[in-house]
Amino acid sequence: MFPGRASCHLPGDCLHRAFPAAQYSEALCRVLAEDRKALQYGPPFAPLKSHIVDLMSQRGVNVTPEQVFLTTWCAAGTGCSVAPVSRSRQPGYAGADCLHRHPTGCRPDAPTVLPVATDLVEGMDVDRVAEYLEDGDVPAFLYAISEAHNPLGVSMSMDRRQALVDLAVTYNMPIVEDDPYGFLAYGGESPPPLRALNDTHVFYVGSFSKILAPALRLGWMIVPTNLIPKVTVIKEAGDLESSALTQRAVSAYLDAGHLPEHVARLRQAYGERLAAMLAALDRYFPDGTS
Fold it and tell me: What is the CA angle 198-200-202, rounded to 5?
């Protein structure tokens, strides 16, 4: 048995204990008791959008509530913002990959794919992006996980983040930044996301799945204000609207001020699991394994 696993009865059991079930239950009960609109269809919940403005400020991103677009889940936000997300042979997030598959997936179109490699030290190969652009291959968008790439785990260096944003501006190339893990840095704060470096060419996609619970299926996008009507039409064609009850319950949870302490516990728990894994690599795996 690996170090750190003895107290866990089932895989993932430790993280299940980290879900704020009691506090979320209190928030949900409060909403059901006080807000009848929670069980009806309705527009995006404005107080939740204000909370997201505050959350984004913690990541160094200044936005207005009008630029916050609520989504049912993080990858759905990606789909709303970019339409087809292209499949490539480079390792990438499977949830984004499924948005365009056909016939088993959800998109009948077959977009041209320009794969970009990611190294395990500094992240996306921005020089390769530049080569595409210099050769005249300006894509409809570039999809990037700047922090804690899924599945490779690497975060982009600040130099590459700035270089990528500079390319986006020079070639008028939109970037879709998928940032579900930016609040979960193990040591210190995460570097600022791409959206903090540019507010005209970066669509930011965030999620409550990784900081509260996956089953909530609630996320958000930061979108230029003039594009909100278009994104709204695309979302309505997909799932009409996100759950009014979930929006209000999450907002009530945030009203109570529980999130900072909860995120701190998550960072500690994930950090302990990381330390256990690294110790196991040193103890059980061949020399040179990383």
Answer: 65
